[in-house]
Each structure stands twice: as structure tokens, then as C-alpha cells.
Write a structure and sequence with these properties.
By secondary structure, the protein is an alpha/beta fold. 42% of the residues lie in helices and 21% in strands.
């Protein structure tokens, strides 16, 4: 086996401090050593490498060209070791919590909620898994489920229920004064939702059997909202969960259709085969608090229909 050029890693730390301070005595003060001990260890490193790293004069030291070239590598190596040690062994080690949610929840309501949570809990990082994105071997620590069964309103971990509105562009508002104006548009119908256009309009305007609806099926709410933002129709939005995404796309609520309570509840679910950690419980509490605030923030005045 060939001889190591650096038999002592401590020599590197001493060299780095001396190079940074351009002084053996100042490096010694930082490392709780004498200046003479720093100089001796640097000399040992230079002897092992076979090249001088410092040019010495009576009152000062400066790096040689080889020392200047060597210093960045040493600093990067020390930083990498310290970062890994902190990640593995620090008492303030970051705890990771995996959270799985639907496409709409992941793309709309959750990002700001999780940003606020991590700001208030710097030792916890949330890994957001989008439902159906790809198969994972591990089970998430916490899952936000969606269901339309009526008894979910009494679920012990219920997060929020849903109401429904019509989303459009601001430019469309002036042309949406009557139900006939609304029916003149392409109506994007989200396939998975039980609250479709016919049900929403029946609740707001009475029976729509005599009217023709220009329905176009769309797979997901985010896709429908993208189409609305490009002037390709109108979409039903489940609130409050859809509002952040709608706002980011510049969409607004059409006041022609009132805020309409409908089917659907989000609730939390966690694995039964392992106990919940303190970090998971903290996240669960934060999700409930954020959901309550979102529901309270809904202040959409209903419109009276003649």
C-alpha cells in the first residue's frame, strides 16, 4: 500500500485556519493551540507533501502558489465532513415527515401551508408525495384522503368539507350576467367529481332539463383551471382547496353562481402499524388549524336569483 501524503487529518484543519488568518498565532487562538504548535503541524504537513505551503518572513506568512491551489479543496472537504456529521449526529437533526395528497391538494392548498409549517418548525421537513405519481415501497407517515361518503362529515380526523363555485377569467365577468350567458360557454366537467354542472346549476337556478349544456370532460381540476386561464371555458372549483391555484392563474369566482355546499370531505389517515412521532402529530395539528382558517376565510356573498 502506498504511503498516505496526509497521515493526519488534523494537519488539514490547522493548515486551513492558518491560511484563512494568514497567521499562525491567530490560527492557534481559534484552535486553542499555541502559534508554535500550529507552525509545527504545518511544517509536518509540508514535509509529508514535499512542498512548502507558506512563504515565511519575520512578521508575516503568505501562501505559496501550491498552498493557494490546495486551500479550496481542503476547505470544501472540511465543510463536507462537518455537514455530514451535523446531519447524522447533531441533536438538532432534521426530522422528515412524508405526506401524501391528491393532485389538487398538492398543487393548490398545501404548498403555502407547508411553507408556514416549516418556517415555524425548522427542525422538521415535509416530503410531499402526490397521489398516483409513482409507486413507493414505503407507506407515508400521513395521508390526506378524499371521499364523498356522507358519514365522513363525522370522521374523527376530518380536515374540511367542500363547497363549489364557478371559476372564470376577470375578462369573462362582464359577459356573465345571466344563466344564458353562462350556458353560452364551454363548461369543463371534472370526471371524478360527483358535483357536476347539472347538479350545481339545478341548485342555483332550478331544473336545467330544458337547457342544453356544452359539457366537455376534463381529467383533473388543475387541468381544467389551466384551460380556463386560456379562455377555453368555465370550470367548477371546490373551495377552499382550489383557491390558491386559481389565484396563481389569475382566475376569479363568478358571482352569478352562489357558493354551494356539496359532497366531499378531506380527512387525515396514518398507518396503523407504527406509532405517530411527535413531528407527525405536530404536522397533523397544523393541518387542522390551517383548514379551519381556510374555511373561516370563505366570505363569498350569495347572489339572489330573480
Amino acid at each position: 500500500m502506498s504511503r498516505s501524503l496526509i497521515p493526519s487529518l488534523n494537519w488539514l484543519r490547522v493548515f486551513e485556519a492558518a491560511a484563512r488568518h494568514q497567521s499562525f498565532s491567530k490560527a492557534g487562538h481559534e484552535l486553542h493551540m499555541t502559534g508554535a504548535a500550529v507552525s509545527q503541524q504545518v511544517q509536518s504537513l509540508e514535509a509529508s507533501l514535499g512542498r512548502p505551503l507558506f512563504e515565511r518572513s519575520a512578521n508575516r506568512i503568505s501562501l505559496t502558489p501550491e498552498g493557494k491551489d490546495f486551500l479550496p479543496t481542503v476547505q470544501l472537504s472540511i465543510s463536507a465532513m462537518e455537514s455530514k456529521a451535523a446531519a447524522l449526529f447533531s441533536p438538532q437533526r432534521v426530522q422528515r415527515v412524508s405526506l401524501q395528497a391528491s393532485h389538487l391538494m398538492s398543487m393548490s392548498w398545501l404548498p403555502q401551508v407547508l411553507a408556514d409549517f416549516e418556517r415555524d418548525n425548522p427542525s422538521i421537513r415535509v416530503e410531499l408525495w402526490m397521489e398516483g405519481a409513482h409507486e413507493r415501497k414505503a407507506e407515508p407517515d400521513l395521508t390526506i384522503r378524499f371521499g364523498e361518503e356522507p358519514d365522513l362529515v363525522r370522521h374523527p380526523s376530518r380536515l374540511m368539507g367542500l363547497s363549489y363555485v364557478v371559476m372564470c377569467r376577470p375578462a369573462d365577468l362582464a359577459r356573465l350576467n345571466t344563466v344564458e350567458d353562462l350556458l353560452a360557454h364551454r363548461l369543463l366537467e371534472m370526471i371524478p367529481h360527483s358535483m357536476g354542472w347539472m347538479g350545481l346549476l339545478n341548485q342555483n337556478f332550478g331544473s336545467m332539463r330544458s337547457h342544453t349544456l356544452k359539457l366537455e370532460p376534463v381529467d383533473t381540476t388543475p387541468l381544467a383551471f389551466m384551460m380556463v386561464s386560456q379562455g377555453l371555458g368555465l370550470a367548477i372549483g371546490p373551495v377552499p382547496v382550489c383557491l390558491p391555484l386559481a389565484s396563481s392563474l389569475g382566475l376569479v369566482i363568478c358571482p352569478l353562481v352562489s357558493l354551494t355546499p356539496g359532497p366531499g370531505n378531506y380527512y387525515l389517515e396514518h398507518p396503523t402499524n407504527r406509532p405517530q412521532s411527535a413531528a407527525v402529530l405536530r404536522l397533523e395539528h397544523a393541518l387542522h388549524a390551517a383548514a379551519q382558517n381556510s374555511v373561516k376565510a370563505l366570505n363569498i356573498a350569495p347572489r339572489t336569483h330573480d
